[in-house]
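Honest question from a wet-lab person: if I give you the sequences of every part of a complex, can you actually get the arrangement of the whole thing, not just the pieces? Trying it with mine:
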Amino acid sequence: MHAHSFSASYALMICAAGLAVSLSGCRSLPPSKPASDWTPQEARGAQVYQAKCARCHYPTTTHGLNGAGLQALTKLKAMPSGAPPTDERLTNVILHGRGMMPATQVADEQLDDLLAYLHTL
Ligand code: HEC
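Yes, you can. This is the full assembly:
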């Protein structure tokens, strides 16, 4: 019943733990766009993310769940693999998977929404 607040405080906790290890951790990342400022497309993308990605990736930290947290993903020079976070590369990872990440089935429109959302992180 408290699942949501539990995962939120858990994410905060590991974020804080990361900070203790490396002060440059959470603080140096550019902030995510707040949900209140999302466009309708970004809000739809957030739903796609919840349905297809959230079980493996935290959106609000770079700390790992099954895969790396995706905060600031598109604002960084490189993704964990070293590849630049271009829409083309993200589309490829989403549609075809990578390593332990399974391919995700999404309609073209959902994919556009999802990419728009990933840019808010
Ligand atoms: C079942 C768990 C799982 C799901 C679901 C999942 N991922 Fe992943 N993801 C992973 C793992 C594990 C990796 C690390 C893969 C590797 O590099 O070996 C990864 C890697 C990534 C990367 C980094 C790619 C790189 O080049 O470093 C991105 C971006 C990503 N996932 C985005 C997404 C998005 C967006 C979704 C939803 C459409 C998603 N993932 C769904 C597990 C998952």
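Two things worth pointing out. The chain has one domain: 3-118. The chain has four helices and no strands.
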